[in-house]
UniProtKB/TrEMBL annotation:
This is DUF1285 domain-containing protein. Residues 41-108, 110-203 form the DUF1285 domain. Residues 1-14 have a biased composition (Basic and acidic residues). Residues 1-24 are annotated as: Disordered. It comes from Cohaesibacter gelatinilyticus.
Length: 217
């Protein structure tokens, strides 16, 4: 356990970040602005020293925890989310101009909780809202990524939000997405996928889809 966590427990924080008196200075300053700031800080431009890991975790359902207790203050969660960064080492950090603090992420950084379909000059655009209020339109810069879930072989869909941060579609949205998927044409013939911003995003081959459907029959 880090000195930060030891002191937080000694102060009786018990998972309530608003009571963390000895958080690093950069995070304390950040917390004091919860609910006030708008926009995303330029964390990709900051290169502070690594200050160690914090017992903070983003669960697979998108819930944030500190010292094992959920963080109930939505403004604080959104503020922490605004300074998230996943580096090339595969780890996720809270980054301020003066500190870089490691946290744990069980699956994705965010949850995509709502989907909208709207027409554009490039064809239909799929836009998603995350659990922390981001609006992401799926395109070349914010592509889909699909993978099978370990153990269940269920399909999981992710969207690139910014940098290396991703949002995972909820199970309900995953069903909605599959419902509008179709077989590709031309160079994408033989693949099952979805189109957004004029780009075809393959989910799987038609052969794999047919085999799956046959197994369920």
């Amino acid at each position: 356990m880090s000195k930060i966590e030891q002191q937080a427990k000694a102060d009786g924080a018990k998972g309530d970040p608003s009571a963390m008196k000895d958080m690093p200075d950069g995070l304390k300053a950040l917390m004091s602005r919860a609910g006030k700031d708008k926009g995303k800080p330029p964390v990709h431009l900051w290169n502070p020293d690594f200050c160690g890991d914090l017992d903070m975790r983003i669960a697979s359902d998108g819930t944030w925890f500190y010292l094992g207790s959920p963080i109930g203050r939505e403004a604080l969660v959104r503020l922490f989310a605004s300074v998230l960064r996943k580096d090339d080492d595969g780890k996720t950090y809270l980054v301020t101009p003066v500190e870089k603090i490691g946290i744990t992420v069980d699956d994705a950084h965010f949850q995509a909780v709502e989907m909208a379909r709207k027409p554009s000059d490039q064809g239909e655009v799929l836009t998603f809202r995350t659990n922390v209020g981001d609006l992401i339109s799926v395109d070349q810069d914010h592509p889909f990524r699909f993978e099978l879930e370990e153990g269940t072989a269920g399909l999981k869909a992710y969207i690139n939000v910014r940098g290396n941060l991703e949002a995972r579609l909820t199970r309900a949205l995953m069903y909605d997405l599959v419902a509008i998927a179709e077989e590709g044409e031309g160079e994408h013939e033989g693949y099952f996928g979805v189109i957004s911003s004029g780009i075809f995003f393959p989910i799987c081959s038609m052969a794999a889809l047919n085999a799956f459907e046959a197994a369920l029959a």
